[in-house]
Design brief:
alpha/beta; Rossmann fold; binds adenosine-5'-diphosphate; binds shikimate-3-phosphate; binds magnesium ion; amino-acid biosynthesis
């Protein structure tokens, strides 16, 4: 496929916690024969501390600033598949930087998505009623995911490989969007 030659990164995966961005992104990259980067993993590598610790010690606002810097760097430098953390696109600078990229929204229902992440260490669902919190946050964000995404995939269509294949089909059919900057 010619996508990696014409567009960098090849694709950026967005969507809520549990949609499968990290899992499907890795499979998609392997199938395309390109590198994969998860901006949460990159953030943890740079900070040398886990995400829950950043939230606890520095607060959510500082997490978003660090996340923004990582995402902007990755969008500039990475040529393969990129998976973002679920809240990254809520930062306006990140949403702006995605203009002109191939942005795949992995869409998941509140029930299906919550089942996948319940009991995980994700700090935003660490409170008293994690299912309700999950539902609320997803409802708050869905409009932004739709606006920023240039294509939408059903994240519960099947196993991660099935979702990756659905993305491959969309990428093959999608016209190459204009890059945000041209030389
Ligand atoms: N299509 C899928 N079907 C079933 N389980 C999935 C699917 N995609 C991801 N998962 C599982 O859901 C959990 C969250 O996946 P992850 O890739 O971390 O999501 P995200 O990065 O969007 O938060 C993991 O346990 C993963 O194995
Ligand atoms: O939705 C969010 O705000 C978050 C999602 C997480 O990533 P995943 O979407 O990969 O779970 C991680 O970045 C952090 O816990 C915050
Ligand atoms: Mg992830």
């Amino acid at each position: 496929m010619s996508t990696e030659a014409t567009h960098r990164p090849v694709a950026v995966l967005i969507g809520f916690m549990g949609a499968g961005k990290s899992t499907v992104g890795r499979i998609l990259a392997r199938r395309l024969g390109v590198d994969f980067i998860d901006t949460d993993s990159e953030l943890v590598r740079r900070e040398r501390r886990p995400i829950p610790e950043i939230f606890t010690d520095d607060g959510p606002q500082r997490f978003r600033e660090i996340e923004r810097d990582v995402v902007l760097d990755v969008l500039e430098s990475h040529h393969g598949v990129v998976a973002l953390g679920g809240g990254a696109v809520m930062t306006p600078a990140v949403a702006d930087a995605l203009a002109g990229h191939r942005v795949v929204y992995l869409r998941i229902s509140a029930d299906d998505g919550f089942e996948r992440v319940r009991g995980s260490d994700r700090p935003l669902i660490a409170g008293d009623d994690p299912h309700e919190r999950y539902r609320e946050l997803l409802a708050e964000r869905d409009d932004t995911y739709r606006r920023v995404g240039t294509m939408t995939v059903d994240a519960a269509a099947g196993a991660p490989g099935v979702v990756a294949d659905a993305i491959l089909e969309l990428l093959a059919a999608a016209p190459t969007p204009e890059r945000a900057t041209t030389t």
